[in-house]
Write a structure and sequence with these properties.
This protein has 444 residues and is of the alpha/beta class. The protein folds into two domains: 4-66 and 362-433, Urease, subunit C, domain 1 (Roll); 69-355, Metal-dependent hydrolases (TIM Barrel, Alpha-Beta Barrel). The protein has 15 helices and 17 strands. The protein has helices at 82-89, 94-99, 104-113, 116-132, 148-162, 186-203, 221-233, 250-256, 270-279, 287-292, 300-305, 326-335, 341-347, 350-355, 419-433, and strands at residues 4-13, 28-37, 40-45, 55-58, 63-66, 68-70, 135-141, 169-177, 209-214, 237-242, 261-264, 282-285, 310-312, 372-375, 392-397, 400-401, 413-415. The strands form two sheets. Strands 1, 2, 3, 4, 5, 14, 15, 16 and 17 form a nine-stranded mixed β-sheet that branches. It has an eight-stranded parallel β-sheet with strand order 6-7-8-9-10-11-12-13. The longest helix has 18 residues, at 186-203.
């Protein structure tokens, strides 16, 4: 441990089940510290028990949490669907808009027309803003390309973004079945995805998970089964959109394959809940979408009673959830879905990490990745108020503090600056100076 630096705060929210108990669900350490060694957490606890640290940041009466994890987004897209938003707000039906060639097919046309560089530029801009909101890990789906070349274009853009600095860690998902391209037979389309597109995705190692939209007017459970079987054969994880508009057996399908998550679940029966619980499949809740679509929430009490782990995600997309804010989704999960504040925070940290099969993120504990947020707030529950702006002061992602996007307050101090920290400050100043330069002609 030669490059230690530490953060002090009045409340350190670890989300560590080893610390949590009935009266302290989030494993909060009052007047605690987090010590980082390069990209990993070296210590969490009381300063009196910490290893020797020269470089301390005193965050004062602030909250430190794990970096937030957005476990369901469609953040790689082009174009705009503002006209559809206005139509829906005036009473238009989402499914009727989609049947008329809008919805997913509208974004499909924009993605088809966009270059890979344009997709990278759009995606990195969104991820940069999400980082500012506290998101240090983000699942990103394809699913707007629809045809093989365009799906691969989306996934290659996601892969390029994942290699860029100062962005959240990306978990790429191939959304294999989202909609049928115009003029294509549905069954033939599913067969082409199974036999052509999915093997190409696996060959290029462009995805960690495969997803499918199992719902009325989307794809059947049997079509989803064909995709899940192929995904498993290629060694890829499975997660699925299930029951957004109707229960057609998607939850049971997820359980059959021990899927990492079943997402949406506005419509799910008791049998599906029982099966998901037995399979230990996570429920990913997307309250922004159901809010904008004027839908009733999923049966939260039944999911909770069954012991299903609850995850909260933004569903960031250009149509039904035009937002980049996971904190907003957390606020809506409390207000509209009835989650407790602790459930909402765990749903965007520890449970989200588990739903993405990330065992070393989402919890502040020794050995985990050094992903954390310092919030300009006195208590973790204040994160759940719908601020509409970023309330992070500092965001640390894999040990790198993105100071160019952070807003340290006057009462937050850093002491005993080391040569390494001076070097980081120099890099930060050079980044801040870039704002006055002409735009660079590159994907970012």
């Amino acid at each position: 441990m030669t490059n230690l630096r530490g953060y002090r705060a009045s409340r350190v929210v670890t989300c560590d089940p080893k610390i949590a108990n009935g009266s302290n669900e989030l494993g909060v350490i009052e007047n605690g510290v987090v010590v980082i060694d390069d990209a990993r957490v070296a210590f969490v606890g009381r300063e009196s028990d910490a290893p020797p640290v020269r470089n301390w940041t005193d965050c004062g009466e602030r909250v430190i949490t794990p970096g937030l994890i957005d476990a369901h987004t469609h953040a790689c897209w082009a174009g705009s669907r503002h006209d559809e938003y206005v139509a829906r707000m005036a009473g238009g039906d989402y499914r009727a808009i989609a049947a008329a060639g809008g919805g997913i097919l509208s974004t499909h046309r924009a993605v088809m027309a966009a270059s890979e560089d344009e997709l990278v530029h759009q995606l990195t801009g969104r991820l940069s803003r999400m980082l500012r909101l506290g998101v240090t890990t983000c699942e990103v789906k394809s699913g707007y390309g629809l045809v093989a070349d365009a799906e691969l274009k989306q996934l290659r853009a996601i892969a390029r973004a994942s290699k860029m600095p100062n962005l959240p860690h990306i978990v790429p998902t191939f959304l294999a079945l989202h909609a049928v391209p115009p003029g294509v037979d549905r069954d033939q389309y599913v067969a082409s995805v199974v036999n052509e597109t999915l093997p190409a995705v696996a060959r290029e190692q462009l995805a960690q998970f495969v997803d499918a939209y199992i719902d009325a007017n989307a794809f059947t459970a049997e079509q989803g089964r064909a995709i899940a079987t192929a995904a498993r054969a290629h060694g890829l994880g499975i997660r699925m959109h299930v029951g957004q508009f109707a229960d057609i057996g998607g939850a049971e399908l997820c359980a059959d394959f021990s899927a990492a998550s079943a997402d949406h679940l506005e419509h799910i029966g008791d049998a599906g809940i029982e099966r998901l619980a037995a399979a230990k499949t996570h429920a990913v809740l997307l309250p922004t979408a159901s809010f904008l679509l004027r839908q009733a929430p999923p049966p939260i009490d039944k999911l909770r009673a069954a012991g299903i782990a609850l995850v909260v995600a933004s569903d960031a997309n250009p149509g039904t959830a035009p937002t980049e804010s996971l904190p907003l989704a957390m606020a809506l999960a409390v207000r509209l879905y009835g989650l407790t504040p602790a459930e909402a925070i765990l749903g965007a940290t520890r449970n989200a990490a588990n739903a993405l099969r990330l065992g070393d993120r989402g919890v502040l504990a020794s050995g985990n990745w050094a992903d954390l947020c310092v919030w300009e707030l006195p208590h973790e529950f204040a994160i759940l108020q719908p601020w509409g702006v970023s309330r992070t002061e500092r965001v640390v992602c894999s040990g790198i503090e993105d100071r160019a996007r952070s807003r340290p307050s006057a009462d937050m101090t850093t002491k005993a600056s080391s040569p390494a920290s001076r070097e980081r400050e120099s890099v930060t100043k050079s980044r801040e100076g870039e704002g006055s330069r002409p735009p660079r002609k590159n994907p970012r």
